[in-house]
Amino acid sequence: MESAPAPARANSLEEFISALRSLKLWYGNPSISQITQRVRDAWRKAGRPPNEWPSRATVGRCFAPSRQRIDEDLVVAVVAAIVGDQRQVIATWQHALRRVLGQAEASNVVTVKDRLPQDPAGFAGRPAATLATTPPK
User: Cβ contacts of residue 80 below 8 Å, gap of 6+?
Assistant: First the structure.
């Protein structure tokens, strides 16, 4: 591979995560512990409280295949921890992740109608309900 992996071709979250694993390999395959420490250091410097710092397991799950959901802030921090201070590279990955997440959200959109569809021709349904004509006691 001549250049670092890029997420531009990712059309799904699974493809994006596969590219993220390739990026990790490309940059010397830092351990999950090393990446976690870098993310924590960056978040500490940014003023985020310790209760928001990710665990090693949480960072490791960013690389897990077949993810359904993912934390955008954490993934961008993981990319930054891998590539260092390469803002354009980080921005490219963030844009690709937003695009992939937008596609995932669009596939989960449900259309709700305010009425039932018309009965098809020749519908053999139940007879219309009759209303009670006697007043309640």
Answer: 38, 39, 42, 90
